[in-house]
Amino acid sequence: MAAEISLMREADEGIPGADVLPDRIIVIGDPATVMGFRLAGVAEAYVAEGKSAEKKLAELLDRENAGIIIVTEPILAALDWRLKKRIEAIAKPVVVAVPDKNGSTGEAGKLSEMIKRALGFELGGK
C-alpha cells in the first residue's frame, strides 16, 4: 500500500470564525477515520500511513495553532521511539490515539491521562 499523504480539507475561507480559532483539532489516519471526523466537523484532516504519517505528525507538533492531534492507533504504534518520547514530553498539542476501522489495539492511553499530562492536574479529581 502506498505511503502517500493527501490533504482532505477545504480552505478556511468561508468557514465562520476560522480566522479567530486559536487551537485546531487535526486528524491523521486512514480514509474511513478521516471521513468520519470530517463529517463530524473537523476542518483539517490528513489521510496518511507509515512514514508519511510520521512526517506529517512531526510537522504538526511544531505548529502553534495545533491544539489536539488525533491519530489512529496503528500510526501511533508505528512511530519512531524518538517521536513518541517527544509527544510524551510536550503539553501542547495533545496527541490522542483512536481505534481505526479494525478496532482497538490497546495502543491508546486513557483520555483522562492525556488531559492530566497536558494540564498538569487531574480534572474532577477525588
Q: Can you tag this structure with a few keywords?
A:
alpha/beta, 126 residues, globular, 5 strands, 5 helices
How does this structure look, described?
By secondary structure, the chain is of the alpha/beta class. It has one domain: 3-Layer(aba) Sandwich (Rossmann fold), CATH 3.40.50.10580. The chain is built from 5 helices and 5 strands. It has helices spanning 31-39, 50-61, 73-78, 81-89, 111-119, and strands at residues 6-7, 24-29, 44-47, 66-72, 94-98. It has a 5-stranded mixed beta sheet, with helices on both faces. Helix 1 (31-39) links the parallel strand 2 and strand 3. The radius of gyration is 15 Å and the shape is globular. The chain starts with 5 loop residues before the first strand and ends in a 7-residue tail after the last helix. The model is unreliable at 6-11 (pLDDT under 50).
